[in-house]
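Journal club prep — side note

Before the paper discussion, L.F. wants everyone to see what a predicted structure for a comparable chain looks like in token form. Sequence:
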Amino acid sequence: MGGRRDYWVLMTARVVRAFGFGYSAVLVGIHLQARGLSAPQIGLVLSVGLAAASLTGLASAAATARIGRRMTLSLIGILMALCGLDLAFATSPWLLVLAGVTGMMGIASTDLGPFLAVEQAVLAQAADPSTRNRAFARYSLTGGLAGAAGGFAAALGTSLHRTELFFMVFAGLGVVTALLPVLLSPDVEGNREEPVFGNFRPLIGLSALFALDSLGNGLVVNAVIAYWLHVKFSVSPAVLGPSFAVMSLLGAFSFELSGRLADRIGLVNTMVFTHLPSNLLLMLIPFAPAFPVALGILLVRALVVQMDQPARQAYVVSIVKPSERSGALAITGAVRGVANGVGPVVTGAAIQAASLGIPFYIGGTLKTLYDIGLYFGFRRRMGDHEELRRPAAGATPGGPGTR
């Protein structure tokens, strides 16, 4: 009973938060520009936001051992509210940097933040092992649909006054997010006697590869792409909002396919074989002579670019002990976030210098190297729930995937 209720509370919190992140990713760069920040300053704020989104995951995972998962999730909602108030009312560049420090600016859309380590550890516990791949896929699907709705709403953010109102609403969504964890059952707390940060030796190589991918991804996160399109083609939020909303919808529908594909070919293969085509498309974007062409490439890329997310999340929680899941997600998330945070600074400088293709070329190359490393380094290591199905699939029990 508690597991099913907990699942729906998690999904509701996911929807509320992702809606705010959906419009924030589109509007934040333009909002900061309207506040008078230069391209390098905008890059700095976005970089701080990306790095903090993951580093705060370490703090949230550690907090669960002291104050529990429900209280930790409530505090994260309060961080979202503070972030929204800062963006709505602050005018100083250094005060706006503080909005990024909360880790709840939503720059990378729905897949990064202090909530990730705690919330997905609860999800792995609430879902049956046999349906874990699809549970994570639907978690991503829910966030993608809500993010798309936020993207459509961003079309209304056509002035500084309106973007201020958007971020005031963002603060209100944070308050709702802070209240929802009260409805979770005590079952979500897990065993607080066991260490959250245990033996993570299996994650060392994986984390290094995640860092490589995130370094490339940080160059081209949604907030950066939206700002690049605005500078390159003079596209307004009225066009950018619906455009990114459609991308979110396409990505959301691909999540369900990701879960089913992972059941058939495995988590690592799903990550690699869906990620490589998106990298090639990424490197084509700077060659677009006009906005409609660039948008067309981005829409095709949206069909595959996020399919690796639920597979990656399900994989990480499946190669460590249950008590260590939040810690594992926090550590891999922190590594990804620090690498991610380098990107916008480079992109901001590149945009200012009119070297508009550099972030896309470097980003696509780094992400391709990640895919190659992931395939050859981890294709034989399975998650615990994959190992359970392995004999039924006709494979030999044990092997490299056995812990």
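L.F.'s comment for the group: Residues 22 and 147 are 4 Å apart (CA to CA). Keep this in mind when we get to the figures.
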